[in-house]
Amino acid sequence: MRNRLRVLRAERALSQAALAQMLDVSRQTVNAIEVDKHDPSLTLAFKISQVFGQPIEAIFAGLEDTGLDDAGLDDEDGANGGQEP
Q1: Please, are residues 51 and 22 in contact by the beta-carbon 8 Å criterion?
Q2: What span, in angstroms and rounded, lies between the C-alpha atoms of 64 and 1?
Q3: I need a surface site. Which of 8, 45, 63, 76 has the fewest CB within 10 A?
Q4: Which domains, from first to last, does the chain contain?
Q5: Distance between CA 24 and CA 79 in Å, rounded?
Q6: 8 Å CB contact between 32 and 11
């Protein structure tokens, strides 16, 4: 899941350690979320949302923001990958 955590943290001049302390998680957890190696729990996502004063959707992006449908295919290609039946 793509996210804007690193950008938001940098805009506020927060270190990973400082943000981690605010969220009651490890610095490694913050780093893993920033580099898309870990998706936060819903509880943690809400905490992050509160810290930055933004809705979860503004921080974290799912498939709907990538141009891919639920099957991971481009919307234009459809379910059969653009092939005729």
Answers
A1: yes
A2: 11
A3: 76
A4: 2-65 (1.10.260.40)
A5: 42
A6: no
> Rounded distance, CA 14 to CA 82, Å?
46
Task: Render pLDDT for 37-74 as a digit per residue (tens, 0 to 9).
Answer: 999 999 999 999 999 999 999 999 864 544 544 444 44
Rounded-to-integer distance, Cα 73 and Cα 77, Å: 7
Which string of b and e fits 43-65 if b means at least 16 CB within 10 Å? ebbebbbebbeeeeeebbeeeee
Helices and strands in the chain, H and E counts: 5, 2
Report whether 60 contacts 3 (CB < 8 A). Answer: yes
pTM of the model: 0.71
